[in-house]
Amino acid sequence: xxxxxxxxxxxxxxxxxxxxxxxxxxxxxxxxxxxxxxxxxxxxxxxxxxxxxxxxxxxxxxxxxxxxxxxxxxxxxxxxxxxxxxxxxxxxxxxxxxxxxxxxxxxxxxxxxxxxxxxxxxxxxxxxxxxxxxxxxxxxxxxxxxxxxxxxxxxxxxxxxxxxxxxxxxxxxxxxxxxxxxxxxxxxxxxxxxxxxxxxxxxxxxxxxxxxxxxxxxxxxxxxxxxxxxxxxxxxxxxxxxxxxxxxxxxxxxxxxxxxxxxxxxxxxxxxxxxxxxxxxxxxxxxxxxxxxxxxxxxxxxxxxxxxxxxxxxxxxxxxxxxxxxxxxxxxxxxxxxxxxxxxxxxxxxxxxxxxxxxxxxxxxxxxxxxxxxxxxxxxxxxxxxxxxxxxxxxxxxxxxxxxxxxxxxxxxxxxxxxxxxxxxxxxxxxxxxxxxxxxxxxxxxxxxxxxxxxxxxxxxx
Length: 462
Known about the structure:
The protein is an alpha+beta fold.
């Protein structure tokens, strides 16, 4: 989503500076002046003529500079910037600049432009600025450049600076074109949209998920259909088979209308970064991908962000529009320096969420807050199913995999091993309380969340 910011009615004045050609002319003039001085010393009569000639050249040069300066007071270029409807963090997207000029068509003059677009600081541009190209008089051109954002939230494009030479090329003219635009940079919704467009079987294949055998009777009847190899013979409808004179089986679907609530840790422990995205951005992307799958299965999805400067709660609801609403609600949530207070957020959720739900807590596990986390989970378990999704730091896994060759390697290995053992002990305690655990590296968290969600659906737990 893009919006145009208000601008001042008066455009910025043109800025003119002497070009390289002027510097070259002045250098030649200085050399000639030195030669004239030497000539006057050797031949006073001839030197007087040289001085007069030098004054004539100086007057002509001054006239040319003033005349060309005056001719360079017109704003020759007009431009527009076309942005995508929305931006997604980490995705390569293009920006189009449409440029034109006010020179009469057929004029022999050709403009050589240097374009510098003031993009947001959070956007990395592939092309080097300024971009140079030439345009003929009276023609319009489209210029394309590419970039990607590495930070979510509201971002602002600024002015477009265009530099070109005056008619006699004695002045560099810089024209600023006011094109302020504000854009929303969302989490990686492109992957979500692409995934959402796929059939269930295609989704499972793409995500590397396995179909799980349904257990129990917690499945809803969907329809009758012709029997296929591999179908459970207990689901054959013998009466319908007798009427149709062929094998008919009952097809079931997972229970719908369940509620899924995500508790997203926005505190300082989520600021860790193993690649281009922080753990928090990976967690947000994983939450949205798994929420998309849950919504497609007919469940209601909501969220609560905690350890933020202002606590956010998004009430569970169903339907495809809920995903768009969730994107717009969560796109500008940023990680803070606050410490996660698990007891406070679970108490707040208990007041807001009365209906039984699957509560998915996405956080980074650390043993110093183990007692508080265990108490918070035990409190949630009174009325809800609880899943804790935690991320393993990739750097710790690398330290454990690296060969030990020096004392520093040994220290890193032992420290990483001790950390992982304490972490695993906390996971074991959570599992002993009946908590479902997703433990994955940040870039694989979405797979773990979707796999466990579908597993619970298939088993009739939710």
